[in-house]
Structure formats: C-alpha cells, structure tokens
Design goal:
single chain, 234 residues, mainly alpha
Amino acid sequence: MMLGPLVNAVTIVVCSLTGCFLIRGLPERFEEIVKKAIGLSIIFVGLKGSFESTHILLLILSMVTGSVIGELINIDAWMNRLGLWAEKRLGLTAQEGTPKRFSKGFVSASILFCTGSMAIVGSMQSGLQGNHETLFAKSILDGSISIIFGASMGIGVLFSAIPVLIYQGGIALASLAIRDFLTAEIIREMSAVGNLLVAGIGFNFLAVKEIRVANLIPAIFIPWIYLGVVSLLR
C-alpha cells in the first residue's frame, strides 16, 4: 500500500535535483514569467477542483473554522521554522543567496503536493484497494512541477518529498482503520477544500498578497468531521 506514496516522493527528489543542478541559472525575467504562468495554472486547477463541492456552505464553514485552528497552531510558522532549521543544518543559506528561499521552496512545494484531490483520493485508493494508478499519475505532474520549482526556488523543493511521503503514507494507512467512516461524499468535500487551498498557492506565486496557506490545512478535515457526525445522527 506504500508503493504509490514512495514513488511520488522519489520522483519529487529526482526531478527537484534535475531542476536545481541541470536547469538552474535561468535569467530572472524567464524565472519570473514562468512562476506567473505556473501560478495562473495552479489557480485554475485549484478552483476547478473546488467547484466539485455540492455543499458550498460546508466549504465556507470548513475554510473559516480550519483557518482559525491553523492560525492558533500557526502551522505556517512551524513549517517555515523547519525549513530554516534544515537550511542552516545543511549550510545552504549562503549558497542560495536569499535566507528564506529554502524555506519558501519547501513550504510552497509541500502544500502544493499534499493538498490536492489526487493526494487524498490516490492515497485512499492505495490503502483500500492497492491501486496506485492515481498516485503514479500525480508523480508525473509533481515531477514536472518539481523541475521548474527546483530551478527557481532551489534545493528546498527536494525536502518536500518528506511531508509528501508522511502525509500520503499516513492517509493510506489510516484509510484502512477508518474505511467504514469514509464515503464518496466525504472524500469529495475534503478534496474540494484541498483544491481551494491549492488555488491559494497559485495566488502566492502571482505575488498579489501572501496567503499563509499552511494555516488553512485543518480546513480539509472539517467536512469529514461534519458529515461523519451528520451520518451518525441520521
């Protein structure tokens, strides 16, 4: 059941290294326009996925409740601290030139690769059915993005493979334990919220206004709690 998450993580590592060392050094104007193109594409993909929700009020409630929980925990700050800690331990600050470049690549890539619908649904398929096709397809997409991210944001993107493996592997393992509490409706609504977070990453790439998307991660699990309670009360 862990084959899909492992392949996804390894693909991110290999493609990030390719971007860092083989395609690095792009002129700044090319790097900037590519990031804007990626940002617009990510916004489209995220919004398209979020439109699958059939409970708009639940989606709004999830975003609001999840943002409050995430802000209290301050997930974004913890992830940035982890990125900066790894950066210092590896002695990469001076090489990268910008002190927060490593952590920005790590956080942005981690959220993007973990919060989409393919991550949730694919991990559940791996755990419940031993079907890894969705995560294999996701690996191709993540690998393509990792090459571009690695070239523009550096080696921090490579380390996003760790939370991807933990997150997707955790879902695959947990899905076996809670298989009786997962319905198609719950999965759809969780995926819709996750895709809305992906759109937030796209806006960050456009540098319109920085959104602490990591602090919105708890929102993904609110539909599961809400719909699970509703089904029990019926």
